[in-house]
Design brief:
By secondary structure, this protein is an alpha/beta fold. It is 39% helix and 14% strand. It contains ten helices and eight strands. The protein has an eight-stranded parallel barrel, surrounded by six helices.
Length: 261
């Protein structure tokens, strides 16, 4: 277990874990100053590629963006989402996780739970590939969005799932869109940190899609807080540039790279 993961584990019940997504060096470099975990999320399918869901994102897509993100990270723990279809069985999971780890030098991979891939997590951990789990709403396996943990039966199932993921060797678990009650119970039942997204402040940490909180994605569910409207700022700059080009105000002599002697 590397030092960064040990540091994350030490935060359990002590200090909140800060996590955001990144798909490029430039964003990762900014996040690295403030985040404990940077996730190269399969959310890039929606955010960058305009796909309806994450199902058609490829391993090559993920690796390419992870290579860029790695260049912007110095201190944060870098976790890479394994895309849908890249871990259907133990053999395939080991092959693809090794490929991700070898090519990107990430610290860990993240796997969404389908309540049936605990052995995959166990086998990856055996070959020294740290794994972050993911329960609740799991977009790779569930077509319709639905809040999880709305009754005792659902909460018990989520707790059991979280415990099995912990036993398999995962170092943390993302809880996506589970009720505050469920999040609180799960967080208290397991010894590894829980990272919430739309799952209340009861979790050990929080993660959001960076493009959502800076106003670039156009996707703003209830659990997202928009901290700035970057869309508006960018549009203002582009509008000014367009106007100056049309009025022949740009480029000026100051913007010329060549001067006659």
């Amino acid at each position: 277990m590397n030092r960064k993961i040990r540091d994350i584990l030490k935060k359990k019940n002590k200090s909140k874990i800060v996590s955001l997504t990144a798909y490029s060096k430039n964003i990762a470099k900014i996040l690295d100053n403030y985040c404990d975990i940077i996730l190269v999320g399969d959310s890039m399918a929606n955010v960058l590629y305009g796909m309806k869901n994450t199902h058609n994102l490829t391993l090559d897509n993920v690796i390419l963006h992870s290579l860029s993100v790695k260049k912007g990270i110095r201190k944060s723990l870098m976790v890479v989402d394994m895309p849908k279809g890249s871990y259907k069985n133990i053999t395939q999971a080991k092959k693809n996780a090794k490929l991700i780890k070898t090519k990107t030098y990430c610290d860990a991979v993240k796997i969404e739970s389908n309540n049936n891939n605990f052995e995959i997590i166990k086998e990856l951990v055996k070959i020294k590939i740290p794994v972050m789990g993911h329960i609740g709403y799991t977009p790779q396996f569930q077509k319709k969005f639905k809040v999880r943990g709305t009754n005792h039966n659902e909460i018990n199932k989520l707790v059991k799932e979280a415990v099995l993921i912990e036993k398999a060797g995962a170092f943390s678990i993302v809880l996506e869109c589970v009720t505050a009650t469920a999040a609180k119970i799960i967080t208290s039942k397991i010894k590894i940190p829980t990272i919430g997204i739309g799952s209340s402040a009861s979790c050990d940490g929080q993660i959001l899609v960076t493009d959502d909180i800076i106003g670039l994605s156009g996707f703003y569910p209830k659990f997202v807080k928009k901290y700035v409207n970057l869309n508006r700022i960018i549009e203002k700059a582009i509008k000014k540039y367009s106007k100056e080009v049309k009025l022949n105000k740009f480029p000026t002599k100051k913007n010329s790279i060549w001067k006659m002697k």
